[in-house]
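Training component of the fellowship. As part of building independent skills, the fellow (R.M.) carried out the full modelling exercise for a liganded target. The chosen ligand was pyridoxal-5'-phosphate. The inputs are recorded below so that the supervisory panel can assess the work.
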Amino acid sequence: MEQTKNRTGFLPYGRQNIDDDDIEAVVKVLKSDWLTQGPTIELFEDRLKEQLNAEYVIACANGTAALHLTMMALGLNKDDIVLTTPITFIASANCARFVGASVKFVDVDYDTALISYEKLEEAIYADKDNKIKAVVPVHFTGLPVDLPKIYQLCQNNGIAVVDDCCHALGAWFEHDGNRYLIGGNNYSSMSAFSFHPVKHIATGEGGAVSTNDKELAEKLRRFRNHGINREVFVNTEMAYSQIGEINPWYHEMQELCPNYRMNDIQAALGISQHNKLDHSLKRRNEIARYYTGKIAEMFDPEEVRPLKQKEGVYNAYHLYVLQINFKKFNIPRAELMNKLREINIGTQVHYIPVHLQPYYRNLLNSKPGDFPNAERYYEQALSIPMYPQLTDCDCDRVLDDIKKILYRD
Ligand SMILES: Cc1ncc(COP(=O)(O)O)c(C=O)c1O
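Fellow's submitted model of the complex:
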């Protein structure tokens, strides 16, 4: 193999895209009166509301906070069970644990790595005590799960759907001849987003929840801000003046809640980043098409293949995952990743199945073999660079170098 190290600049598996206009937007807020709890938060929320076609958007500190807030808003506790997939970031499961609820994992379909509808149905039908209160499906990599089908199943069984959209800002699906945006909440109670730098728009840390339910929206707003209530009071004798007006300083804390607020600096960056979202999605899709076409030319699908795509959906392509038959090549994944790293190509594995994390092994007594599709997917998974600044030449370089290492040329 050609051993030219550091051939050109480092290509990470994902990265942010910050331009001068982003910097200017942040500087403008830094020079303003409001660094936090100011007007830019609502502007950012309005922008997302408009895009998602959701009635309410509540910005918050990060995607993990967004998920936690949804579990709080549903009022879940230790008597409840939440179902999610093992092929996700740990936060999709942890959110249930933060409110004391139990987590049960449901295996994925091997070829898409999305939660399996059949397995979900099995888990729900087996729940004779009706303890399952929420399902958190994940639009993994940006590929929408079949939300209408999952929603119908859950509606029939009194279960809330909270879709984890952290990979899927801008994704959509068609159903009954209509197009629905992920996060529009036509087929979910709430949707959670992350604006971590590797995601479609970056706010440093940042997240949001969308919903069409007024009551849930009010709870989400209150719960992100210490549970502070300025409208409905328990201590009325303290709340009101002698003439029956709310005392100007008065507020009440009626529940224990965190501070999960987003600040105005992040929101300004979010708005400016959002201006580039369409371009980002378009370029991500072009890159995906380019990769997929080249992979079909370069590799036997038994050896290297992309994840299966679906008809009637728009993938937001947060990630591009290859399935590589490492056994066939007789090369460990770590060796491929290390060799790629030496020649300045970053890759990652999304994800270590969550049920195999020590915390969940201890808690659930889960073990290898419990979710065979998830584990088989994981054994072969490798995320290769995917972000809008990648050029076609960068993509050629990634695939050519993977081929050289795998075939030991
Ligand atoms: C699927 C998924 N859910 C939740 C999160 C949590 O988001 P954050 O990192 O903003 O807390 C992430 C972030 O990586 C994610 O990928």
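The panel noted the following from the submitted structure. Confidence is low (pLDDT under 50) at residues 1-6. The radius of gyration is 23 Å.
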